[in-house]
Amino acid sequence: MSEIRPFAAADIPKVADMFQRILRKTDRPATPSLKAYLGELFLDPPDFDPDIVSLVHVRADGSVSGFLGALPMPMELNGMRLRAAVCGTMMVDGHAEDPFAGARLLRAFLAGPQDLSLTETANDVSTAMWRKMRATVLPDYSLEWLRVIRPAGFAAALAASRFGAAAMLAPLARPLDAFLHRQGKGTEPQWSHVAPENQNGAFSDTEADAERLLELFPALTANFPMRPQWQAETLRARIAHATRKANYGDGIRRVVSTRDGRAIGLFIYYGNKGGIGRVVQILAAPGQEGAVIDRMIDHAARRGLVALRGRVQPALLDAMMGRRIGFLHASSSIVHTRDPALIDLFRSGKAFFNGFAGESWARLIGDRFD
What InterPro entries does the record point to (predicted)? Predict the structure, then answer.
């Protein structure tokens, strides 16, 4: 008879093998680096809680056939501490042999001691499982946004991501984008350029080190009634994890300030010239969301990126309107709790979730383990 039990160090080789085959879709063996990171992330996470643990599904013969990664994340609501857990990596080996293994893992996770169970990476199959267990899908947290900066370059980069030979189109895209930029310059915002008002000099952005981020994260999330209970040492660990995402490109961490040096926001993204940048976090003081988004787009444009994409925060949606930002759905953000009042906070966008308040900071999303 199969069972669910806590993830242990002895399970790492099997889980790493599943990660390669099921999530990375490669037959290459798991590297020592990947195995070490799985142990670091899921056996000693930044906000370690001995009662909130990752889980494995074990067949009757004792072999591990499934895994669910649980990341503790203390939250606070108007000064009250809440225990939250983020369901990260979830996978099942041999699904056809035991189609209910994933459901058993999820049910065991939701039965844990946490007040809130969350995920931001649920695919269609796992979303259906969450729904059956009376969880709430959060549409405003589940959207991804896309801002094209260089249309021809974006098309070439998109083609190259599917067909490697299409990378040869990139040099041809540059003069076309330059032409489109000249045609649109000085007019209303277009997909082909950054509007002049984004560069009016009222705001500037400068590089942020880890200590500056440690200072700004709590300050810029303080206006959310429901937010992570950031502790300096655990937030520092998340920032360290997020330093490298080699599959996405170079990491960029910038603080946006007014002319007198007052910080009004920050943005963190990854990307290289000619590529599509991945934004992990945008934070802004109330009323300054548009300025922060503009500085981020302008910075990416100056670095030669062809587009930016990231996960929506409800607090940013209004500012994104009118900035030629499109929206799509790739995975779902979901909350499960026995307290309806907590669900209402998420539905109304008053909870800070996704990005660093989720799992996107972890290296498993976007990094290589060569």
Answer: Acyl_CoA_acyltransferase
